[in-house]
Prior knowledge:
Layout: E1 4-7, E2 13-18, E3 24-31, H1 45-52, H2 63-72, E4 76-81, E5 86-93, H3 97-110, H4 115-133, H5 136-149, H6 163-168, H7 171-181, E6 187-193, H8 197-208, E7 230-235, E8 241-249, H9 257-268, H10 274-281, E9 286-295, E10 300-308, H11 313-330, H12 334-350, H13 355-369, H14 375-384, H15 387-397, E11 404-409, H16 415-421
Parallel strand pairs: 2-6, 7-11
Antiparallel strand pairs: 1-2, 3-5, 3-6, 4-5, 8-10, 8-11, 9-10
Amino acid sequence: MNYEKHTLNNGLRIILVPIKDMTTATTFTIVGTGSRYENEKENGLAHFLEHMFFKGTKKRPNAMKISKELDTLGAKYNAYTGQTQTAYFAKVSSEKILEAMDVMHDLYLNAILDEKEIKKESGTIVQEINMYEDMPSSDVHNQFEKLLYGEKHPLGRPILGPKENVLNFKRKNFVEYLERCYSAKNTVVVVAGNFPKTKVLEKIKKDFSAMSSGEKPVCELFVKTQKEPKLLIKEKKTDQTHFLLGVHTPGFLDENKYAISILTSILGGGMSSRLFSEVREKRGLAYNIRAMSDFHKDTGSFVIQAGVEHKNLEKTIEIILREIRDIVKNGVNEEEFNRVRSGFAGRISFGYETSDDIAQKFGAQEVTKDEIMLPKELLKKINEVTIEQVHEVAKQIFVNDSLNLAIIGPHKENKDSLKKILKI
């Protein structure tokens, strides 16, 4: 898989990934900002702005005009906001790519941000917040990050923000945020799939050359101050108890991230993983249990998530901690190490099957790391990890002063007993 990178005079980066045997193409515009770049009063603004981009431009004055045009193209289109990036994309049949680009570039560069639409959309976002709060399997992630990073740090605040912020944002707030964060230097435009390369490049240059150069915004660094295990219980009447158990890790600049990725898969990366076997297959305590790792530039996390019967919470936590202790003490065995490491070739390939997958992977890497690692290069890094490195990184990250447990369910009375078992 080959790609071209072009940089305009204003600093905008263009990534072209031509793949001739595809029948689709994806236009993907990503900016290096998100909830991590908000102060407390702005929390929720990045996500709200993403919504407002679809509410109208001078050329396409309302949401219906935009959606009808994209639907007529047969496009799969959407946007997302994360902690450090926000993206807008449309996937179409190859012959429609220039038309899709015209719409998506217009949204990105020329949003009207009408005050009446802001007021109306605030109600929609409040309902979105309510929806996720009614989904404990989703809300528990917000609770865990609040515990892990603290409510005063941007990483500890919810991407959607609190309802009171959402209901009080004014047009000037969006304009100020746009000027600070949506600059050419902070933007990457990716086109992947089967497309006319010369015409696509000319289109991007024509549309984005006048964009203000600006500077990349600066975010608040995270400094870990935790000194003992921490517990958060959100008391709620639920059919299941949902929890996240996890620890701090280094960020993506640390070479240990590859060993952490292997460790993640060994513990909870599939149906042959340790925790799936011990928690689900042997004991039937959970329908699903999984481990995940997440990396920022300066910090990261390793987490285990499950939903269980209320009465089985402590038993499940004890089983997870037992498996963690075993790896810290004895390391991983050769069979599971080789099986998991071998499986990465397939999993990496799956992430690059479609034009939208490819565009997202390339854009996210470029906007956060200023470089792109091709699948074969990533697999090489994974294959260079040794079993000893996995053991060593387990001993480094699985320590009591990094341990955090966030719970949603009726467990206020169990706080003391949960605290007692929360140790490695």
